[in-house]
Batch of 3 targets.
Target 1
Amino acid sequence: MEEELVQQSSSTWPPPPPFWQAFTPENIARIEKSRQQQAEREGVEDASNVRLHDLPRELRALQPPLEPADGEWRVFGDKYRLVDELPKLEDMQIRRLFPNPEDRDRDGKHFDRALILKRLAKSLLLNFLELMGLFAINPEAAQDKITDIRDMFINFHHLINEYRPHQARESLISMMQAQLDRTRAETNAIRDAKDKTERIMEGLGSLKFGDELVGDSTPQKDPWATQREVWASALADIS
């Protein structure tokens, strides 16, 4: 038993919660029937949006919980929010190493993220070298340098995350442009096939069938004229 608990606590993904056993066909049919009856009492057409109260213990897991009142919830120890916003560095108790969004364009200058990222990358390399020197000389004084490197990494990552909305827009534009180009290519292929078919039909219209040329306006000899002449001469001899 102890070995099993150790394996569960050390596994990457925990075992499924025990309430999955409540999702049986009988329980699902029971809660759907209860929702339908509640909807009829409340005069609601869509029974799926009806919330039931005082459910039996075996049916409680079949009803989704309400949205969190504060907009936050935890999954596997991580905190999530209904409104996905980038938290501020000050809220995370992290020292800011680049200007605030409110103060960036106050002087009319453009905020160059690439330049700030390059400066942070160079500062990280320099502080890492200084950290290695402190480990060799005075390891007890290295904690402040480790804190500085941590703040630099978090600022670096935070600045990249500020660029995520622009990256999402550019990715969407690229996807829509690719779809438009693909649609235009398919349309051009259909037009080429149509033109090729028309040329083939025009070529078939000029082919010869027997001794006649389809579409030729020159007068052709009547194929029954010889037979009529033969019958006419035969009748003349008889008479």
Target 2
Amino acid sequence: MRPSSESELAEAVAGAAGPLLVRGGGTRTLGHAVGEVLETAGISGVELYEPGALTLVVRAGTALAEVERVLAGERQRLAFEPPDLRAILGREGVSTIGGVVAANGSGPRRVQTGAARDAALGVRFVDGSGTVVRNGGRVMKNVTGYDLVKLMAGSRGVLGVLTEVSLKVQAIPEAEATLVVEGLDDAAGLACLRTALGSPFDVSGAARHSGQSLIRVEGMAGSVAYRIGRLKALVGGEATVVEGEESAALWRRVRDVVPLQGKPGEIWRIATLPTAAAGIVAAVGGTALWDWGGGLIWLLTEAGRGAEVAAAVAGKGHATLVRGQGGPVFPPEAPEVAALVAGLKATFDPRDILNRGMMG
């Protein structure tokens, strides 16, 4: 099914006789959801764009590339830097803004500006009964009612099918520069990133891979030059500075997990304490890309290492099997969390037809 409007989508959900597999562009789907495919890409288009208010309202099926093109025309962008994971997932298709929000897709700049859910001002969605629900608003001051906006971001379509999202956007800064620190082992390189993030120099990216620690700053040219200089003195090591497009290219590699692309094995996405990041990788082995100062690990391992990953991460975060057949995609939930999720599912999708099995 490919409805072309919110009302058609609501009718399709209300009349569904069995489970539905909700799909935007199919570029971020994880888990083992089953059912008839319900595509949202037909519900597309920009509803409202007010550059002066840094506000964008767009239908959920709109291609991410189209959203970025519209914003770039006014020298603006999505602050949360959504990643393109098609290469590591082995997917084709066109990423949609609804899929980005449903997956809470967030890149390196999350350490400064927050995740996709932090940029979301409002949503419209169709719940499992076919009812259209609206929550939030089109301005940042809207704080009334239940925060279904934050709930829907990252819910991967199990509670409702997004039809519209309202987002706050960001001006593209005048300059950017990246400090590239080499000559450190992983533990020292990650400590370097934590030092930078704990400084007053407004770091917008802190990542490590291939023996390099990367620290990014953005803003007015004079401010960027000053902060990079101070950071260089602060972190020590063998450091060089790259600027402009060369810097941007480094962060696209981090954002899209390019160092792990095209390599055999399983890929894990591990959210953890930055101080635990080096130890987790040392315990499991494999090839790692660390983002968010170590708070996010993309880890390439041999197949069948799920038990080792679970043991290394236990009590320190959670691991998601992004690519591979080593077991459950998502980590088991604590009983209290599972009860809360079951209650939400019963409220918003009492027939359990939306992305059934997605979180399994």
Target 3
Amino acid sequence: MIFPCILSGGIGSRLWPLSRKDRPKQFLPLFGGESLFQKTAKRVNHSGFSAPIVIGSNDHRFLIGEQLSELGITANSILLEPMGRNTAPPALMAALIAEESDPDALVLLLPSDHLIRKEEVFLEAVRGAEQAARDGAIVTFGIKPSEPNTGYGYIKVVPGEEPVRRVDTFVEKPDLARAESFLKDGGYFWNAGIFLYSAKTMIEAFKTHQPALYEGLLAVMETRHSDLDFTRLDADLFGKLENISIDYAVMEKAENVACAPVAPEWDDLGSWSAIWTVLDKDEDGNSSLGDSRFLGSRNCLAYADQGLVSVIGLEDVMVIATSDSVLVAHKDKAQDVKHVVDQLKSEGRDEVDRHPRAYKPWGY
């Protein structure tokens, strides 16, 4: 059995002012009335998968419960992190939970903020990687790059045509020249942060490469206790865990790492420029969410939470308007939105934490 584990933490600061601490991007119903979290849960709501393990923030517990309920999906468990500790602790916690139910369990670790348009292609890749995971590999899914994107890390794989190939090396986010060379080489793939592994394999990997974190997490998991539909952890013990990604903690150290290349029309919607990429466009390349108008403008994005946004005589510009904040930025500067959020945080502004309109399952 494959146990999907959906990681639903994070606040999506680069999608401010729409994404905020109390309602981050993965829970926003931007795509056909569904959120990215819901699309992720539906993606693995198939035979061969167990009910999902969801690991998320205590701040979002009711959002998680409500959005799963809207889909008619009951979670295996909803584990609430007292604070964020990156992706390494959840990778091990999911393995420990899955092994309790099935000693031979596989875990599919999934971020909740990805858009996959060809879901069957992705599921075929998962099925194709299943045996490699059962044989002891930690499989990461590499996305075939469609452009020399500098916002993603890359995975270099050994040459071949097999559905799962050995990883040569992991590469940090490159500059444009290097990204262009990766695209020409053909042996590099975007690191999607999606992993398939056996619970036993990941537990052994932590014992070998992160023994202190392993022991710390065992102690944390001993403190689990139920609270309605949720599982809580001791905040003091959890706060002492190292804040580290699964890439740094295990993937870059282990020798049993493999990659399954796949082209499922995947997008990590981490910025407004990425949102523009996946939306329908008019004949001038403009995209909109909400009520907007374009005049003499090209390749722009407009979002109107309330009222109307008009964009005149601009190119490659994003205009995002909520009831209490407006963002205007060039698409090339989409990654810098987080710096505005950091500045607002330092000033103690509520606009980074509180959404101007409370959301309930029946609407705003």
